[in-house]
Amino acid sequence: MGTIGGGVFQAVKGFRNAPAGVAHRLKGSANAVRIRAPQIGGSFAVWGGLFSTIDCGLVRLRGKEDPWNSITSGAMTGAILAARSGPLTMMGSAMMGGILLALIEGFGILLTRYTAQQFQNPPPFTEDPSHLPSKEYGQQGPITR
Questions:
Q1: Cα 94 off chain centre by
Q2: By the 8 A CB rule, do 55 and 67 touch?
Q3: CA–CA distance, 92 with 83 (Å, rounded to integer)
Q4: CA angle, 47 then 51 then 52, to 5°
Q5: Which of 114, 93, 95, 115 is nearest to 103 (CA)?
Q6: How far is CA 38 from each of CA 16, 27, 32, rounded to the nearest angstrom?
Q7: How far apart are CA 58 and CA 108, in angstroms?
Q8: Number of Cβ atoms within 10 Å of the Cβ of 55
Q9: Nearest to 42, CA basis, from 5, 67, 91
Q10: What is the pLDDT of residues 70-126, one digit of tens each?
């Protein structure tokens, strides 16, 4: 995912930053993808692996799987990856990671609730089934409950 997304982004960036002319722009685009896409893909893989490791560890430690695990994992991943830059940068990265994952989890919860409400109350019948032939319902006369 990181390599493909990074490749598309770098292709556009290389195309825009290359000198005028179609041949120069295509060469600049291909050059940017060749140089930067593997780095972006590797960074994405490191982030995803660390996030998943921390998330699974929190599930095991806490004994339950809820949004707090993901939010905490995002914050801890941001902090760990910024550890070489000092404590202030670690705190900033941890806050950004936690906020980003909180937004993603919140959106997921809202989407789940919205889709669940659609199926909670089925729409009413538009016609009364009691006047239909009884063989379709496997019983005689109107349906009674």
A1: 18
A2: no
A3: 11
A4: 120
A5: 95
A6: 20, 18, 10
A7: 20
A8: 20
A9: 5
A10: 999 999 999 999 999 999 999 999 999 999 999 999 999 999 988 887 777 666 656
